[in-house]
Design goal:
Its cofactor is [4Fe-4S] cluster. It comes from Terrihalobacillus insolitus. Catalyzes the condensation of iminoaspartate with dihydroxyacetone phosphate to form quinolinate. InterPro entries: NadA, NadA_sf, Quinolinate_synth_A_type3. The protein is of the alpha/beta class and about 350 residues long. The protein has three domains: about 110 residues, 3-Layer(aba) Sandwich (Rossmann fold), CATH 3.40.50.10800; about 120 residues, NadA-like (Rossmann fold), CATH 3.40.50.10800; about 80 residues, NadA-like (Rossmann fold, 3-Layer(aba) Sandwich), CATH 3.40.50. The protein is built from 14 helices and 15 strands. The strands form four sheets. Strands 7-6-8-11-9-10 form a six-stranded mixed sheet, sandwiched between helices. A four-stranded parallel sheet has the order 13-12-14-15. Helix 6 links the parallel strand 6 and strand 7. Helix 3 packs parallel to helix 4. About 50% of the residues are buried. The mean pLDDT is about 95. The structure holds 1,3-dihydroxyacetonephosphate and iron/sulfur cluster.
């Protein structure tokens, strides 16, 4: 039963003590997040893994790319585990390294040496390594503006992987007009742009988050009609049109801060993953909070980490010292770390 599993996890945590560290992303289920030693957005979790150099076993409650990042940032004596190997990220899977190499070659033929690659941390270690090798950096939703500004101090143009929406929303916020943004379609192996190529400042990889694309202009219009006093806050993985119509947009941490500090009695529609929205509803009973899309939007891969998988992972670690270990090959890790360090030094 759930109760027995909970007791087992608690007991194992107690037994392993300081040797065990469980980071949990804000999108994790309550049944899992209750056991997290630290909660955070992608940026915070990356920083915590870097700081926590003592934990021998890191059981990552999040998705695959986050566990890879933890492995890259920790030392060789530390092992990182993902309770369910099927916990991937559909957005990260939209940029594969072969496609990225083809894109880079074709874009370099067009734009010579004027492009700097940036990748959202929601990408594979191979992509981070590619970006690190080409003097670029990673970004998170919490520091994207700072990182894009930095990139334009290095080069005339940027290639932003793999989320076109975070890339477009960030560049737009920094004052870059939409008609200076092109899209790279990895399937067509083609740049999509209407106008003279020298105008291109930002090249957006054609990837997206299948969870955040579920928040639509129609959802916004519906809220404006039904609840004229309600404020709308969304994650910048949402489409440009949705972010434009919302009252505010920001990382999961930003959303949590805004809602937590909002006035009693205020009303909010939130455009982000279901588990976080549900938690905010529960923790802010004196505010009126709903999901921007009435069909709550879960991240199915985040949800693969559940209490049974966490318990199973801990049980195996106790018995054998390992379970679903995530190991990034050394050469890849070296360059990926360069991309991550460029970000972590700046923020
Ligand atoms: P942040 O945690 O950076 O806000 O990103 C949200 C997300 O989609 C994580 O996969
Ligand atoms: Fe990936 Fe979107 Fe899920 Fe985040 S919410 S892990 S970006 S699919």
């Amino acid at each position: 039963s759930n109760h027995e599993l909970e007791q087992f996890v608690q007991h194992t945590k107690y037994k392993l003590g300081e040797k065990l560290f469980i980071p949990g992303h804000h999108y994790q289920k309550d049944e899992v997040i209750q056991f997290a030693d630290a909660r955070g957005d992608s940026l915070r979790l990356a920083q915590l893994c870097e700081e926590n150099q003592n934990a021998e076993y890191i059981v990552f409650c999040g998705v695959h790319f986050m566990a890879e990042t933890a492995d890259i940032l920790t030392n060789d004596a530390q092992k990182v585990f993902l309770p369910d190997m099927r916990a991937g990220c559909s957005m990260a899977d939209m940029a594969d390294i072969g496609q990225t190499e083809i894109a880079w070659k074709k874009l370099s033929d067009i734009f010579d040496d004027t492009i700097l690659p940036l990748t959202y941390v929601n990408s594979t270690a191979a992509i981070k390594s590619f970006v690190g090798q080409h003097n670029g950096a990673t970004v998170t939703s919490g520091n994207a503006e700072k990182m894009v500004t930095w990139a334009f101090e290095q080069k005339e143009r940027i290639l932003f992987l793999p989320d076109q929406h975070l890339g477009r929303n960030t560049a737009y916020k920094l004052g870059i007009p939409l008609d200076q943004m092109a899209v790279w379609d990895p399937n067509l192996e083609q740049l999509i742009f209407n106008g003279p190529l020298e105008k291109v400042k930002v090249i957006l990889w054609k990837g997206h988050c299948s969870v955040h694309e579920n928040f639509t202009v129609q959802n916004v219009e519906q809220i404006r009609k039904q609840h004229p006093d309600m404020k709308i806050i969304v994650h910048p993985e949402c489409r440009r049109e949705v972010v434009a119509l919302a009252d505010d947009a920001g990382s999961t941490k930003h959303i949590i801060d805004v809602i937590t500090n909002a006035e009693k009695g205020s009303a909010w529609a939130i455009g982000t993953e279901m588990n976080l929205v549900k938690r905010l509803i529960k923790e802010n009973t004196e505010k009126h909070i709903i999901s921007l899309n009435p069909n709550m939007c879960p991240c199915l891969t985040m949800n693969r980490i559940d209490l049974p998988h966490l318990a199973w992972c801990l049980e195996s670690i106790m018995e054998t010292g390992t379970h679903n270990q995530i190991t990034v090959p050394d050469t890849e890790a070296t360059y990926a770390k360069k991309a991550l360090d460029r970000m972590l030094e700046l923020v």
